[in-house]
Amino acid sequence: MKNFYEARQSSSRDQKEKSRYEGLQRKITSTEFVLDLALICDALQELSELSLELQDRSIDLYAANQKIKALVQVFKERPITPGPYYEMAATAVERLQFQGVALHTSGRVNDPPIDVTAFYTKLHKSNEKNCWTAKTQTLRNGRVCSIRNNGQVTSVRI
Question: Could you tell me the residue ranges of all domains in the chain?
Fold first, then answer.
């Protein structure tokens, strides 16, 4: 915040630049921004962990499917049980202060915070599409398996 304050006070900047810094500071100190950022951080943290696990070359298809299902379940529960970043942000919003920085409510009707339930519903439905709905069927020679994925049969070479 110190950088924004100094930029607004700098004699080397014109009024347009000073106004831009003031607007940015108002935006990032709004309660709506803090909640939105925390919501997205929690989701990205979960997705990042899944991504790293799926990139492990030793993971098999069954284990990958189980990990995706587990993430879907986490996303289903998030509207009721918030993630760590969102919990921290909600506490900061209650206090109108985040790590020593005063927060304010923008009160802008056209810029509400992200709807937590809608956000996580979209995420869990999007990831649920990647889960298999029927058991994997493998040919005896282990070369090809057919996976029924939401009614579609796909052949995968293994």
Answer: 2-131
